Amino acid sequence: MTQLNYNKSQKYKDLDTIYAQCSGPGGLRLSDFMAQKMGLRAGARLLDIGCNRGWQTCFLAKEYFVQITAIDPWDDRMQGDAMVEHVRRNARHWGVGNSVLAQKIGVPDTHFASESFDFAHSTTALEMVHGMQGKEGYMAALREILRVLRPGGVFGLGEPMHLDVAIPEDLLPHVSQPDFAWKDCFRDIHSTVEDIRNAGFEIVEAAHAPDARDWWLEYAAHDPFCKQNPDGDPKTLEIDAGRWTSFGYVIARKPE
Ligand SMILES: C[S@@+](CC[C@H](N)C(=O)[O-])C[C@H]1O[C@@H](n2cnc3c(N)ncnc32)[C@H](O)[C@@H]1O
Fold first, then answer.
1. 49 pocket-lining for ligand 1 (C-beta < 6 Å)
2. pTM of the model
3. What are the structural domains, with CATH classification, of the chain?
4. Is the pLDDT of residue 139 over 80?
């Protein structure tokens, strides 16, 4: 098993800023975790899928010295401008403007040439594709990621998932949100692995992240939408108390 350390992310201590610039559990520690699990190496070409405002993208470019194409098709919920505009501004702020290229596109319609990337990475994004477009859309996204990776290239997926148990009855109303209901978006590790394998990848490693609960609690305490609405996700996580909600990762390789 890979020995992990969080030396690169630990020095970024302002969690309010990190969670304001990211969108989901884990922040920069999640990116550090995924980078190490994927074996990210300096000079590699990385596709960051669903990069949001690109704070994690910039962290990876600065601390892992990778060349990143960051994609996100949506506009910012708070400010209304394109996510990729934030990515460009943040890349200048982090001093990695020459290593980050942001494009307003999403999977599966990327139009990149086949075999363009050494690594592809997505955190807390594809479960939303599953929620919106169902299994068919999710599989199309995975096949597109396979297409744009070079043979031997590595895909790292980090996603909110649930433990292998039924939804506790008292939690059910709280994970049935009107938009992106967790019960429709979150899946278990086994079905996620099966989908990634069926899309054509070889599975290297898959598990629940050891720090999943910490990441969720950090998100509940620092995400601006959570701070505005404590009866939303923070309440859900409090009622859940670690019984159902988790965070899983899958590291997969495109066959040579
Ligand atoms: C919850 S945010 C996660 C951001 C970040 N990766 C993180 O871990 O904090 C999910 C992002 O996925 C993006 N997204 C939605 N549909 C997508 C698609 N089809 N392809 C790529 N990204 C997509 C959204 O615009 C949003 O910014």
1. yes
2. 0.96
3. 7-253 (3.40.50.150)
4. yes
